[in-house]
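User: Here's a chain of 204 residues. Predict its fold as tokens.
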Amino acid sequence: MAKKIEIVEGLESVNVDNVNVNEVKNQNPNFSDKKWLEENEPIFGDGTTSAKYDAEREPKVQEGLKIIREMLGEKINPLVLLLGKHWENKVARSEIKKMIDAEAESKSMPADHYLQVELRKNVDDLAKIQNSVDRLRYAITYFKPRAGLSNKVIMKQVTINGELYNVPMAQLADIKAKYPDPADKAKMVAEVIAISTKIEIDTL
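Assistant: Prediction complete.
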């Protein structure tokens, strides 16, 4: 039978046997420190994990939150992202809510109005683009070849030191971008030759 323990008064119990325990790298988490919450990954399985924690779903959620942060930056309140990031840790969740309430007070706004109206605007804007994302995914899938994707490598013939080579175009472009300085031409040539196939030309 799964063991249940009460961690924090007023919060739900944790079904310990169903928690996928992540390695706790920081043995002294400071959930009341915003900087610590930003710099550290969520902690699960230490007795503070929500009973609704889903080990398969969580990595996808975390990846999505990072993408949102990279795309929107300061356009979305960082506390909203922290709330999503650490949501399945009940202690961290509670501490972040306190931070949001404190921020509301600093703006002379009621805490409930600040969270449910002002900060919700960010999330509602994200929800609006879901149909657009679905359309883009469908549009790309619509043109997917029935016979499967081509794995053909596009080659280009290049003359190096008087010799002719077949070079993968994509890799050639990457190497050229890697060595923009003419002084590094020798290094660039060496890398190109390493990924190329020399073409033997018969002389009649």
